[in-house]
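User: I'm curious whether this sequence folds into something compact or stays loose and floppy. Could you predict its structure so I can see for myself?
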Amino acid sequence: ELPVGILGNHRLELVFPAPPAPKPANTGNEEGEPENQPRDEVFNHYFLVEEYKPNTFQIAFAGNDFKLDSEKATLPLQAKYLLGKPLSKAKLAWTADVRAAGVWSEAFQDFRFLDSRQTYYWDEEGYHDVPDADQEHDLITGQARTDLSDKGQATLEFTVPSAPFVKKPAVITVRAEVTDVNQQTITESWSRTLPSSDFYLGIREMDSVSGTGTPVDVELAAVGADDKPWQQPVDAKVTVEKVDFVSVRVQTVGGGSNVKTEAKRTVVAEGPLRVVPKGQQGAAFAWTPKGPG
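Assistant: Here's the prediction. I'll summarize afterward.
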């Protein structure tokens, strides 16, 4: 926070380190000045200052009262003026959406968790989407326009589908927009992450190119829903697949034909691997590519 001066101004002083000593110069420029001498640098930055006008009311979500029963969710909210008086006869518009969440752990920064397979591939014609790859999208699961009660309250009801998030955590985001009788509009949002498992597995990032006949180590790690290292051993199964993209001619309506690309997956190696807690010496799953691909 910047200190305020007697005129309502803000002042900030930045201290830069001393420039390095100039290198000896044997020649001069066209004006006869030595080369390699430090020069004064001037930088400008512009910003806009406006008069601060606080909102006359606020929106508060009752996150502690959020409930999820099977796929039905409820979330209360309340809007009130800054002095505590509730907003009556106010208009409310809200939406709720659900999307897949990622998993990242500071303890395993070079590991990729969940299903992190590429959804595209490259050939001599450029980049293409992998056929049948899962594309992640935000799902709008509830939206409505309504009036707040005389106490400035409302309970939002929406769904949280479980099928798309069986193997990955889900993030619920609710956005509410309230307009009072004076036509002032305030927007507020609320979000919560729902874990899909007690722990998640991740694989250490590997070189994108490996030579045929060169052993490759597959290392795994486990983190809890809190993104911290999982403290129990986990027995996992490692499966290595080779993906070939095959062009297939299919018949279209009217007797014509078209060409589409299909992904052909072949298991080239698999086996068990015990994932041990961080700090313990664990083994890696080793396999050797026998051919290009």
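Summary: The radius of gyration is 30 Å. The first strand starts at residue 57 and ends at 61.
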